[in-house]
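Review form for a predicted model. The reviewer records the input and the model, then writes brief findings.
Reviewer: anonymous (R2)
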Amino acid sequence: PLVLDASPEAAARGVRPGMGLREVPLLCPDATALPPHPAREAAAAERVLAGLAALSAAVEADAERPGHWYVDLRGSERSLGPPAAAAASLLATAPPLLRPRAGVGPGKFAARVAAAGAVAGGAPVVAGEDVAAFLAPAPAALLPLPPETVRRMERLGLRTLGDLAALPMAAARARFGADGGRARDLAAGIDPDPVRPLPPPDVVSAALDLPAPATTLAVLKLAVRRLAARAFARPELRGRHARQARLLAALEGGGSWQILATLREPGGEERVTRALGYKLDGAELPAPVERLALD
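Model under review:
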């Protein structure tokens, strides 16, 4: 098993997403491992995203880090106020239980580093002229690079963003390829990448309460076929195809479980049913299933 996310306290001790769960006790002996709850996490993320979208038309989800979003605040001074006030409004979209953090900077990476170093409920603001000095002491592990690349950097003595920024560009590219050049720019505060909001996908949902908790994949496959038929009978999907399907299962005892099937080519009811069936073939149910939902 791998670490999917870590609290600020665990991260301060070196726990990082992508590392093996067995490594965690060596770095943080008092850490507690929590199993993922995909259905609950997805619902919480959708509520936060809706709140952010109400504040800004430009919201981008970080594809590498679920639960992280970039919000373009340019031109929002009239509606949201100065950066500190705008950040407070962004934080208010997430329940305090989630211990949200925000960061404001001249670019996405600087804002991400500011948020990573913030306390729960905090939102540091980094001015453009201060960005290089602000980034310099931050750990290189915050760069959007694979863990193995970060470990290579650390073995070479490049433990902070300042260490990497001091490396000549040619050397960064020679040692780490194109990703190294991009990382060196980010470490130096050079980040021209704009917020890239994606148009919201058309989502059609269908749900099914099972008459008795399902314990076998055969029963689930029959339920999936009924769900797909129900979804494609909806007016929004008639005559149309789907590119992706997510099956959410509410488990006996309160847990949840999900699988995601992405089709190579958009398909109709039969192709969606088949794709989810293939995913189920390799799955292992953690508990009996009481309810299914298909998006």
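Findings: Strands lie at 59-61, 69-71, 206-214, 242-251, 256-267, 289-294.
Further findings: The CA atoms of residues 84 and 192 lie 22 Å apart.
Recommendation: see findings above.
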